[in-house]
Write a structure and sequence with these properties.
Length: about 120
Amino acid sequence: MSDITIKQTLENLEADLRTTLNKALISPLMQHQAQDIDATSPLSSLIEQLSHSHLLDSELFLNFVQLDAAYCQLELGLYGICSDCESTISSQRLIANPIEQRCESCSRKHLTEHRQELRLNH
């Protein structure tokens, strides 16, 4: 994929994530916290706002953080490079998840280690 295609894909994903966030913010459970979150803020500001809400532990927050990382990687010419081992992430993996940060091998290792951490912490 070209950088322009990747950027468009990331922008489309960002629009989808912001739509999901807007829906979450108008839910009755979120209205008391929604006043501190402006879903139209620049991405870095939005991540900062979300980090001070109960959405900090949500998949939505993680997706925004990974999206920000993907934009940075694209700018630096590192998009599609595994954040752990620096090997190339397969194109099939990136098509399935454009904000993927790890190759398949490192992702499996990370999930295994994360599960182990969760068991030790609980």
